[in-house]
Amino acid sequence: SSAKMIGWGSLYWYHELTYIVSNSSISFNGKCGILVEKGANPHIFKNIIEKNLGQGILLTEGSSAFIEKNEICSNIKANIALGGRCSINTTIIENKIRGGKCEGIFTIYGERLLITNNEISRNNQGIVAVTSVPRIEGNTISLNETNGVLLVRDC
Questions:
Q1: What is the pLDDT of residue 12?
Q2: 142 phi/psi in degrees, rounded to 5
Q3: 32, 5 in Cβ contact below 8 A?
Q4: pTM of the entire structure?
Q5: Exposed site from 18, 62, 72, 122, fewest CB < 10 Å?
Q6: What gap in Å lies between CA 35 and CA 77, rounded to an integer?
Q7: 43-46 own/partner pairs: CB under 8 Å, 24+ apart
Q8: The sheet that has 71-73: what strands, in order across it?
Q9: Which residues pair with 127 in a beta bridge?
């Protein structure tokens, strides 16, 4: 069965555990759809994450995730944002990342980030990587308002 999570709260995890979030609709939240903090490492699988006032998925410093087969669209801030000190080993695979008012994917100071086999389209920017070295392969990146992929070093 699938859970439906709509409202002004959002899913929130912390601690060094692995969680599975799946088959949920996560939308219309006042901040993030999913916020991951303090070393958490969830598997985020087959969800619809849309129309949140913050990011669709936000991974803060020291957190990581395996983000797979989700529809992440129409969030006000980045559809997926991650990075910061000790942010390593995140995989973003086979997602539909569309219609974000800002970035499809935004990463800053991210390490060992794999972005593969995603559809990234109709965002303001497709992928923005600031002082990050993501491995970007096999994606369809199209129809974004400005850049498909922007790589920049923070000086």
A1: 46
A2: -150, 155
A3: no
A4: 0.88
A5: 18
A6: 13
A7: 43/18, 43/19, 43/68, 44/68, 44/70, 45/20, 45/21, 45/69, 45/70, 46/22, 46/70
A8: 3-6, 24-27, 48-50, 71-73, 96-98, 119-121, 140-142
A9: 105, 149
